[in-house]
User: Which sequence fits this backbone?
């Protein structure tokens, strides 16, 4: 009998030889590691108010949402989260999805289609890339942060509608999209601008209201914001924040809203708890950026504009070895290699947290200085 899975061995061997294999490492609760790898930017994931809000929702509504949002999966808690998030970022309405990935797939596929051109920044998150593939639209991928290329693509469109996609904060490099200029070009061409604020909410803007709010685009009817609840908001899930007509359209047509079970009540409660803490303690947002600047000073990385500090090392094996060396000394860092980043730009990806202490920073400085000296040698 032939082995139907032998091709997987060959591919796994090739990945290992190229330094590109991945290993799952379960983290331990209450781990002694200093975390520079997670997306818990505001340090709220174990905050007592977040845990209490999650537990209260769990006890009241149960372990799962029990069905699609359209059937039994909407609770009063979901609707409160939607209005609180919309109010926070200055949007007209909110619609919660089971993940940020699902929010992006749902929003793009529902707003695009065969009679729309989709223009997508080359640095967009994988969920937006997949959304483009599912959209049945003609898709033009423009070079990263290239507003002229977006304008050129929109100018030649033959489709009646157009949708422009971008992250606000790009996840690999932590840089910002030129949102104002992008919006100006979208306005000129009657296009919708969809902005993924996964890494912007909680970090950029007044009290963490996001980059769209910071640049004065909150509430604009031709701007659609998507976000995850799994980073600054210390929970799980996703949201689309937009004009009420967009919300109505998504409820009727977004496949990841209709055919996916609603977000679990505990996650809804956790996100509401985190948002309440952030509203009361807006200084947490500025603290993230301050710690990111400390990390950049230590590593020689570029001046950070978000929680993400990228230390590019080039070779995937060098980056992997550096991440292992950090872990052996109690520091958990991210390691991004192709296909997450382009060839030759493998890196340590550090994420700042608002609640890193001075003791943490001393350990971080000692470890990173030594490990990077070896990596660069
Ligand atoms: N967009 C961006 C920019 C992200 O970084 C992520 C998560 N890594 C997502 C969307 C997907 O969000 P979620 O993890 O909630 O599915």
Assistant:
């Amino acid at each position: 009998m032939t082995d139907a899975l032998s091709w997987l061995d060959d591919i796994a061997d090739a990945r290992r030889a190229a330094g590109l294999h991945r290993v799952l490492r379960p983290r331990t609760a209450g781990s002694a590691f200093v975390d520079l790898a997670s997306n818990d930017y505001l340090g709220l994931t174990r905050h007592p108010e977040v845990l209490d809000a999650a537990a209260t929702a769990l006890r009241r509504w149960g372990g799962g949402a029990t069905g699609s949002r359209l059937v039994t999966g909407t609770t009063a808690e979901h609707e409160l989260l939607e209005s609180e998030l919309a109010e926070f970022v200055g949007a007209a309405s909110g619609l919660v999805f089971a993940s940020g990935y699902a929010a992006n797939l749902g929003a793009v596929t529902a707003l695009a289609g065969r009679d729309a051109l989709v223009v997508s920044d080359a640095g967009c998150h994988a969920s937006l890339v997949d959304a483009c593939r599912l959209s049945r639209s003609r898709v033009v991928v423009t070079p990263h942060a290239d507003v002229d290329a977006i304008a050129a693509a929109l100018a030649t469109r033959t489709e009646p509608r157009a949708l422009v996609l971008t992250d606000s904060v790009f996840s690999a490099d932590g840089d910002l999209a030129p949102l104002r200029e992008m919006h100006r070009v979208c306005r000129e061409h009657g296009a919708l601008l969809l902005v993924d604020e996964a890494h912007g909410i909680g970090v950029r803007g007044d009290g963490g209201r996001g980059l769209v709010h910071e640049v004065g685009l909150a509430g604009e009817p031709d701007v659609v914001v998507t976000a995850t609840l799994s980073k600054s908001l210390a929970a799980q899930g996703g949201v689309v924040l937009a004009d009420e007509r967009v919300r109505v359209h998504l409820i009727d047509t977004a496949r990841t809203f209709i055919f996916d079970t609603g977000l679990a009540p505990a996650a809804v409660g956790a996100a509401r708890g985190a948002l309440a803490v952030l509203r009361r303690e807006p200084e947490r947002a500025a603290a993230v950026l301050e710690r990111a600047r400390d990390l950049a000073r230590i590593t020689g990385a570029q001046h950070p504009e978000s929680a993400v500090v990228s230390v590019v090392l080039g070779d995937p094996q060098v980056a992997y070895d550096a991440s292992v060396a950090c872990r052996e000394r109690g520091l958990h860092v991210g390691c991004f290699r192709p296909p997450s980043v382009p060839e030759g730009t493998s890196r340590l990806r550090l994420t700042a947290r608002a609640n890193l202490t001075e003791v943490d920073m001393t350990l971080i400085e000692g470890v990173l200085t030594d490990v990077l000296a070896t990596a660069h040698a």
